Amino acid sequence: MAYLPPSGSPGQTLPPPPSYIPPTQGGSYLIDCLHSYTYVWLWNGDSFWYYPTRVEYGEVSGYRWSGQFWYYYGIDPRFIREVSCPPVPTLY
Question: What is the mean pLDDT of each run of 10 residues along the chain (92 residues)?
Fold first, then answer.
């Protein structure tokens, strides 16, 4: 069964992710990064900013940054090599 994001979903209102690539932390878990800007490294060498909204057995879903906009994206967690969800600096 496919999961479709609700209309007015966060991907339409999220600001762009940070402009830097965080260092690998070696030990972060995706479940700890729910609803946070998360940088993902895959086993095939790809890497990207991701905003995970749901983690289940065999599937992670959320929004992937294309470089210009967020789009809904689901992935098998076995393809993920490492994640990093650093704190985003704020003005206060």
Answer: 52 83 81 93 96 94 96 95 81 59
In a domain, 12, yes or no: no
What's the domain range around 28? 23-84
Measured between alpha carbons, how far is residue 5 from residues 9, 21, 54, 71 in Å?
Answer: 6, 27, 11, 10
Structure confidence by residue, pLDDT tens digits, 53-69: 999 999 999 999 999 99
Total number of domains constituting the chain = 1
Residue 15 lies in a domain: no
Question: Can you give the CATH number for the domain in which 51 is found?
Answer: 2.30.30.100
Q: Which of 52, 60, 53 is nearest to 79 (CA)?
A: 60
Q: What is the pLDDT of the chain when averaged over all its residues?
A: 85
Return the sign of the alpha-carbon dihedral for residues 52, 54, 56, 60: negative
CB–CB of 15/63 below 8 Å? no
